[in-house]
Design goal:
It contains 4 helices and 14 strands. The strands form 3 sheets. Strands 1, 2, 3, 4, 7, 10, 12 and 14 form an 8-stranded antiparallel sheet that branches. A 4-stranded antiparallel sheet has the order 5-11-8-9, with no helix packed on it. It is globular, with a radius of gyration of 17 Å. It has a single domain (10-267), classed as q2cbj1_9rhob like domain (Jelly Rolls, Sandwich). By secondary structure, the protein is of the alpha+beta class. Helix content is 15%, strand content 24%. The chain has helices spanning 10-19, 32-45, 74-82, 85-93; strands spanning 21-24, 51-53, 63-67, 97-108, 116-119, 127-128, 132-138, 150-152, 195-197, 205-209, 214-216, 225-233, 238-239, 270-273. The chain binds 2-oxoglutaric acid. The site of 2-oxoglutaric acid (AKG) has 11 residues, from strand 4, strand 7, strand 11 and strand 12.
Amino acid sequence: MTPSHPKVTEEIRETYITDGVVKLPGAVSDDWLPQIAAMAEAELAAPGQWVTDTNPGAQTNRLFTSRYRWKTDPVINRYVFESGVAQMAAALMGSSTARLYFDHLLVKEPRTEAPTPWHQDIPYWPFWGKQICSAWVSVSEVTVAESSLEFVRGSHAWESYFAPELFDGSKKNWTSDFEGEPAPDVAAARDDYDIVGFDVEPGDVIFFSAWILHGSPGNAGDKRRTALSTRWLGDDVTWYPHPGSDPTVTDEDTEVQSGEYPDDDTHFPLIYSALAPT
Ligand SMILES: O=C(O)CCC(=O)C(=O)O
């Protein structure tokens, strides 16, 4: 059955397919945003298990990320199941289903110097397939200078698979096990790339392929930038654990075998199916 969503017009879907990224204005309702902001505040005060923090406790110059909390955090859990983002992701990917991989809170305090390095998501993740995307929402208005996202338009179609890098500004590889070419230094040669950046209003969601090169500058602004990215798996996805893949869910946690569709509702819950009665 063809997936659809009222906000995913044919034009928007074509942009997603061609560019690898699209912004859906007002895709989630405003009432989610204060809840996400409060969740972030609580997480900063008492971080969960899967955290990167460049400057613990600081009010400025701090990049903080936390992942895979949908099972224990009630706000994230409700957002994943009820916000409608899963159905939009499915419609954009042309997938009849959307399973959640994980949620990723990304906070940049005011005057955070560290950019999010230019990277592809797919090499970090233990999955293979083209129907994999993220849905990134900011709780407040954010310009690119305040650390909204930038993309190399069309790079999802390059067939590249770049070595993952740490997100702490160190420029080090995320793992020593991964063999692969480093991501190009887009920041050093911006004119060589077709870069598109998105200023966002609250409730806008940026959907992007796991294969696209993307990053964000540091936060030059004087307010916190809080964003929540959720990661979505479509019909063509298979389990592909490999050296360097994110350890939040590993082969030891799931009975899914390499090369199989990740039909595991405990770890990758089915959030949307076009076949399910509405
Ligand atoms: O929020 C950011 O700065 C980076 C987000 C990102 O890279 C992602 O969601 O994949």
